[in-house]
Amino acid sequence: YCSGYLPAFHNTGKFLYRGFGAEHVKHPIFYGKPVENRRPRDSAQNMQVIFDQMLTDLKVKALRSNSIFVTSNRHVAEGYGVPFIIFPTNDTAYAWSTTHHDIVLYSTGSTANMLQDYEAYKNKPEDKEYILQRFQATFDFKTYDLEEAMMKENQEIWFTGHYFAVLASLEPQLRKLLFH
């Protein structure tokens, strides 16, 4: 189920974490999947829709709206709730930005201007291509090299697909099982 991601955990000595609200945590281990059409917590919804369309145009499968956000920094995950270690299943796709560790989309600013330009010119191939190139140059999204992303302490990584979640307080036992 998760064998494709275990080498990254082993090679880096790190896990992926996610904080869950206490009201959602009923078991120390559970099988889950991202919420369909995830609503942003800190970003403007209209900006997320355009952002996701641009990612789709770049052939990225893990979008803001269909993914869970994880990090290799347990303390960051604790800021979002009860920390769990996330084991993505082999059917997942992921994406991360090499230039932004936490992407928040506001309705104003340079990123918003780029997204609005895309929306205005998406039906004009030359303009659309130029804006997508600017977008990729700004965010430098990768859909590979999970180990590199995990080594960046505060990196936000998006996973789409199913996962197993294990309460982070069980980390010592997991480390003993997986790393020794």
Beta-strand residue percentage: 15-25%
Write down the overall geometry: elongated
Helicity, in percent?
A: 25-40%
User: In terms of structural class, how would the helical and strand content be classed?
Assistant: alpha+beta
Strand order of the largest sheet: 1-4-8-2
* Helix-strand string: HEEHEHEEHHEHEEH
According to DSSP, the number of beta strands is 8
N→C terminal distance: 21 Å
Low-confidence stretches: none
Radius of gyration: 17 Å
Features:
180 residues; alpha+beta; 4-stranded antiparallel β-sheet; 7 helices; 8 strands
Written description of the protein model:
The protein is of the alpha+beta class and 180 residues long. Helices cover 37% and strands 19% of the residues. It is built from seven helices and eight strands, in the order αββαβαββααβαββα. The chain has helices at 6-12, 45-57, 74-78, 110-121, 125-139, 146-151, 171-179; strands spanning 16-20, 29-32, 68-70, 82-88, 93-97, 141-142, 157-160, 163-167. The chain is elongated. The mean pLDDT is 92.
